[in-house]
Write a structure and sequence with these properties.
Layout: H1 3-18, E1 21-25, H2 35-46, E2 52-55, H3 60-70, E3 77-80, E4 83-86, H4 88-97, H5 99-103
Parallel strand pairs: 1-2
Antiparallel strand pairs: 1-3, 3-4
Helix pairs in contact: 1-3, 2-4
Length: 111
């Protein structure tokens, strides 16, 4: 691992642990830059949970590092209570089954 990889991993780890629900995505919650990120935001907003977003387009280290951090090849990526949940397809499946609501349990309602 290079210093950049180590730095990105440390920053990702800090971001994942800083909030109960974190979505690494392309763009922002207000302006998603891909359909998958838009769908992930819509699911979280529909569930009325407070969540933080990290725009991977703003930081190449984070964009590449998050894929290694989770061992998951695509973005967006959802983390709840420090644990990797999945991408938008998994989020949708979990939402439809009611499992996502359970995983996000304990997250504060959106203000």
């Amino acid at each position: 691992m290079t210093d950049i990889d180590t730095d990105a991993t440390a920053r990702i780890d800090a971001l994942v642990k800083a909030s109960p629900v974190v979505l690494f995505m392309k763009g922002t919650a207000l302006f998603p830059q891909c359909g998958f990120s838009s769908r992930a935001v819509a699911i979280l907003q529909h569930l009325d949970v407070e969540f933080e977003t990290v725009d991977v387009l703003q930081d190449q280290g984070i964009r590449q590092g998050i894929k290694a951090y989770s061992d998951w090849p695509t973005i967006p990526q959802l983390y709840a209570h420090g644990e990797f949940v999945g991408g938008s397809d998994i989020m949708m499946e979990m939402y439809e089954s009611g499992e996502l609501q359970d995983v996000l349990g304990g997250a504060a309602p959106a203000q």
